[in-house]
Amino acid sequence: MKPVAIFRHAASEGPGLLATFLDERAIPWRLIRIDAGEAVPHSAADFAGLVFMGGPMSVNDELPWIPPVLALIREAVALDIPLLGHCLGGQLIAKALGGTVGRNPVKEIGWGEVAVAGSATARHWFGESRAFEAFHWHGETFSLPPGATLILSSLHCAHQGYALGKHLGLQCHVEMTEAMIRDWCEIGAGEVAASAASPAVQSVATMQAQMAEKLPFLQQAARQLYGRWVEGLRG
Q: pTM, whole model, 2 decimals?
């Protein structure tokens, strides 16, 4: 089987739970370290699926790797190779497929409930779940690309997730592990403090205090999504 390509855009924003999920199922994967200067692959055809993780940059920044990534996303859609985007990754997919990315009404950092839409598409991805506590760390968000169906929303961000056939774009983070949350809280402590006026930003202490209760349920929701997504992998 061809590997799943996982694009990392910041050293602290790796695949997390997704790597564990793939390893448990003996699904090969390859980490492409954009943050370390690795080149964007020339063709999506070498992979069973493409996954794009988060990052502190904007998809609207003039970074040299963004245009070839957008082109690779469009090629994957043309070849029916499934896409999965987390936060920045969901924004990259949205932009590549005709959506736009701009500022969210408020910055969103920490735990927050997302609601699952009542559509058949949303049930396909989430089963019987109607809501779950996701982890958030973003100041921008996407519009829905043409043809996509909204499957997740929240009080502070209307577009938390969309599906387009076998492709899935998320604004929230479902890939979190305890180690990742602790790392992000340490690295992003200054950003959290500077954004404390936002109604959707939790303190570092609150995020960590709620982790034991909320992380298992988040990982359960992530496994449901990932399980559905890998059904579309190309051989």
A: 0.98
Give the C-alpha separation, 2 to 30, whole Å.
10
Tokens of 118: 């009542």
Separation between Cα atoms, residue 112 and residue 145, nearest integer Å: 24
- Candidate CATH numbers 3.40.50.880, 1.20.1050.40, 3.40.640.10, 3.30.420.40; the one for domain 4-230: 3.40.50.880
Secondary-structure percent of the chain, ordered helix, strand, coil, rounded to 5? 35, 25, 40
pLDDT in tens, 111-130: 999 999 999 999 999 999 99
Average pLDDT, the chain: 97
Answer for the pair 113, 210: CB distance below 8 angstroms, yes or no: no
Question: Residue 62's CB: how many other CB atoms inside 10 A?
Answer: 7
Q: What is the CA radius of gyration of the chain?
A: 16
